Amino acid sequence: MTTKMRTTMKMTTSTTTTQMMQEDCPMCKSIENCRCLSYKTPGRLPRNQTPKIVMLTFDDNVNGVNNMLFKELLDGRLNPNKCPITTTFFVSDIGTNYAIVKNLHMKGHEMAVHTISHRTPSTWWKNAAEEELVEEIVGMKKKLEKAGIDNVVGYRNPFLQTAGDRTFKVLYENGFLYDSTLPAHNGKP
Ligand SMILES: [Zn+2]
């Protein structure tokens, strides 16, 4: 099983609203429009009134073995509003069972692209030509669409290694709406 689970959790601690209003973002220098990665609350919300958001995603192939884990983790768990929790699967082709992909999608989970081959070494993804990226990225999108997934708009690169502008160009020109590749450390991608 090659599936990895990544979670992002924003925890809350008590800080007064007055303290937060005095703090501009050190990177974009904005209070009102800041979207930088930080532990600060959005829109000056008091921390004890800020919703806690967990983003749950999985990478790599989807098969009968890791589907047992998905069932155990996801089935029957609800958000505070009683809606089922959902996640995003960044799917690669090799070893993937598309009937399971379709089934997970029908349960409300998002399916996104993680390329066809997920090949090694990781440096291949840094140096890949635009045509190679089209083959890997758009090719995987078409495989998901052929399996009945009609709204494939997300992408994450293998090994979190992009080819820079070449990757973004391919995503932009082929109907993707977001990339979930670049890791951030202390707010700096
Ligand atoms: Zn991967």
Automatic annotation (TrEMBL):
PROSITE patterns: NODB. One of its GO terms (biological process) is carbohydrate metabolic process. This is NodB homology domain-containing protein. Residues 52-189 form the NodB homology domain. Transmembrane segments: none annotated. InterPro entries: CE4, Glyco_hydro/deAcase_b/a-brl, NODB_dom. One of its GO terms (molecular function) is hydrolase activity, acting on carbon-nitrogen (but not peptide) bonds. It comes from Clytia hemisphaerica.
